[in-house]
Amino acid sequence: MKATIISILAAGVLVAGAIVLTAGPSDSGTGPANNVSVVDGTQVIALTAKGRYSPSVSTARANIPTVLRMKTSGTFDCSSALVIPALGYSANLPPTGITDIKIPPQKAGATLRGMCAMGMYTFAIDFM
Q1: Are residues 20 and 37 in the same domain?
Q2: Starting from the edge strand earliest in sequence, which strands make up the sheet with 81-84, in order?
Q3: How far apart are CA 117 and CA 126, in angstroms?
Q4: 74-92: per-residue pLDDT in tens?
Q5: Among 39, 45, 99, 113, which one is least packed by beta carbons within 10 Å?
Q6: pTM for this one?
Q7: Residue of higher predicted confidence among 1 and 41
Q8: Strand ranges for 27-65 from DSSP E
Q9: How many domains does the chain have?
Q10: In the prediction, which pLDDT does 24 show?
Q11: Predicted confidence band at 32 (pLDDT cuts at 50, 70, 90)?
Q12: Mean local confidence (pLDDT), 53-58
């Protein structure tokens, strides 16, 4: 009986360790996302849609013109049906390609949220 309990606990520790070791910064939401750049006075926020939105949280500058650049590559899941309620945006992204979505300048402290049509996959952009 004691050996069974020890075996179960050891298996649990191994599974938990495997989960921690295989989760990268974009999976866990820890660590800064390096997906925002400014090109010719326009801020570009790059996200990937395939089985989720990556990164799930981005930090961007407030009060400048912004483009959300959605990249798909063999994306045939729900993440291709993009909805951004605050912008009144709803569209099906192409299975492979890049789609640019204009975002009007946002105030500091604003958070823009997007999701798939079913609400299973989400992302947030925090404007500072």
Answers
A1: no
A2: 57-60, 122-127, 111-116, 81-84, 89-92
A3: 21
A4: 999 999 999 999 999 999 9
A5: 39
A6: 0.74
A7: 41
A8: 36-39, 42-49, 53-54, 57-60
A9: 2
A10: 38
A11: low
A12: 97
Provide the residue type at 1 as one letter. M
Own/partner pairs, 74-80, CB within 8 angstroms, 24+ separation: 74/50, 75/49, 75/50, 75/51, 77/50, 77/51, 78/116, 78/117, 78/118, 78/120, 78/121, 79/49, 79/50, 79/51, 79/52, 79/53, 79/116, 79/121, 80/49, 80/116
| pLDDT score, position 20 | 39
Q: Are residues 16 and 70 in the same domain?
A: no
CA–CA gap between residue 37 and residue 60 (Å, rounded): 9
Among residues 128, 8, 124, the alpha carbon closest in space to that of 55 is found at: 124
